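pinging the channel bc i need a second pair of eyes. not urgent but kinda urgent?? the chain im working w is below, pasted from the shared doc
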Amino acid sequence: MADAETNERPRRLAMHIYVLPNLVTTGNAFFGFFAIIQAIKGDYTKAAYAIVAAAIFDLLDGRLARLTRSTSKFGAEYDSLCDLISFGMAPAILMFMWALQPYGRLGWIACFLYVACTALRLARFNVQATVIEKAFFQGLPSPMSAGIVASSVLAFQDLQMEAAGNFWLLMMTYLLAFVMVSTFRYRSFKDLDLKERLPFRYLIFGVMIIAVVAYRPEVNLFILFLTYAVLGAVFGVLNFRKNKRFRPNVYNPSQTQGDDPDLVEEEDEEDEKSHK
């Protein structure tokens, strides 16, 4: 009888997580929060470098989790929450305090839109993580968008340009928000295995990029990041109809859209006409 009562007692659920990759993810959140504090204090250079540091930690935590085989649902969700701080709130507050305050309501609405689109981008990525092909991102990645904001601060200071009230920075903020939630395809380079033998030209191309960036890193990094964003948007507009179709994840071909009610595969108008 006592044994039966013991077996009927509800068991306490305990949370067991992988500590190392989640500590690295916490480093991402730390630098994002530090960037916010520095932006409020008016030290925009430190804020920009803190966002860059957060991006490095964001890159490391995923690689570390896969290397140590410690990926988990908790880690993925925690990473997204930290990304919202580092690549949503921090760049938006930095941009507003640094350049968009003179625009008043128009300025802070642009920054709010940036934060909201970052959150939507991260939520969509989590839902589509197992169905969208790994070689491409759908929409501009939030770390790259934050990198454009951070590098714009460094570029403007290096060129000694006035940022406060700059019309192009206002437009850039709105456009970055839009391309993050767009269906434009951006190359992720995750299918490029640098551990394998590749043609010699890949090494030459890499050396050339390093040399160009090293010549004037503050300006050339901004140009490089902005070019990546613009080219993806241009090709996305030219291939707008193709971007609507889900492209299956070649690394997980057994996953289907029917497994998640949030994902619905839409049929193109051309396919509908061909079926009639």
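so Confidence is low (pLDDT under 50) at residues 248-258. and The longest strand covers residues 136-138. — does that match what u expected or am i reading it wrong
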